[in-house]
Structure formats: C-alpha cells, structure tokens
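Protein fold
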Amino acid sequence: MSQGLHIAGDEPSERADAARNRRLLLDAAGALVAEQGADAVTMDKVAAKAGVGKGTVFRRFTNRAGLMRALLDHTETQLQQDFMFGPPPLGPGAAPLDRLIAFGCARLALVGVEGEVLRAADASPETRYTHPAHRLCHAHITMLMRAAGVTGDIPLLADVLLASLDASLVMAQLTTPGVDLARVAAAWEDLVRRIVR
C-alpha cells in the first residue's frame, strides 16, 4: 500500500477545486475498476470518464501506479470516516458485536475494487501490515473486541479477524463455485460471533 495514505481527517489542506478534481478523478478510477477491472484502467480512460484533460490526471498522480495507490488511499479513508464517524451499526452508537459484523461487511464491499487495485499497485505484504491504515483497522477491531468483553490474546485475534477480510484472499475465495460475497460475509459474522461469546 502507499506510504502516503493518511489517517482520515489528517489530510493536508487542499484548494477546494483541487480537492474536487481529486475526488472526481478517484471516483472515475474506482468506477472503471468496478466496471472493467484494474488492468483495463488507463490514464486516458480516467480522464475521459472524469471529463478532464489527460494532463490533469498525470499532474495529479504522475503515473498509473500513483493513481492506483491514491485510489487505495481514497477507499481506505472513506471506510475510516464511516467506522469512526458514520451512522450505526458501522459507526458509533451500536453494540460492539454489531459494529464488528458491520465492519467486516463494509470491508468486504470494497473487495472488488480494493483487490484489483492492490494487485495493480503491487502493494507489498511487508508494508501492508505495518501501514497506518491497517494499524487503524487493527486498533478499531481490538477496541470493539475489548468493549464486547472478549478475553484472550486480543491483538492476535484481531490479526485473525483482519486476515479473513484480506482482499487477495476474498478474491481467491470468490473464484470457488458457489461462493459469493454474501456467503463470505455470513462466514465473517459466524467467526465474529464465535470469538465474541
């Protein structure tokens, strides 16, 4: 993952028009990944979908890998905003067990885009697990498990829970006949309920 990812709310200030263009470009890139897969995404296609010149995309992201890393940052930041400040059950105000289940479902909803982008951005496993975004998700799950009264080695249990949501793993699971995101989400809920007894 990109070392440039910011924890939600920690972004440097940006001109309103630049921020709008960035969101527009990232939304266009995300839509293209969802529609055609990461391999089909080019700087030209992103520019056309966003309705801007190709030079704007290159000035903003330098190259395709930079665009893919920024798209990962964008999806992670949105998830962070949702679980820290959004409505329940993902956000504050729901029981810890309900929030854990909702977190897994929200993460799984990103798998199609995130898995493709991780592969395209060539995110290294060494940095993926030490990255601030991963650490924040780990801290969130740890906090919810403690609030739910889970006992045992909570940091390692949090690793196990997060590992089951890994985009590469889930994308591999989805190639198995009869396995879809609903089935993976049901397995996540079952796993969480077994840990939070």
Q: What stands out?
A: The domain at 11-62 is CATH 1.10.10.60 (Arc Repressor Mutant, subunit A). The chain has eleven helices and no strands. The chain has two domains: 11-62, 71-195. The first helix runs from residue 16 to 36.
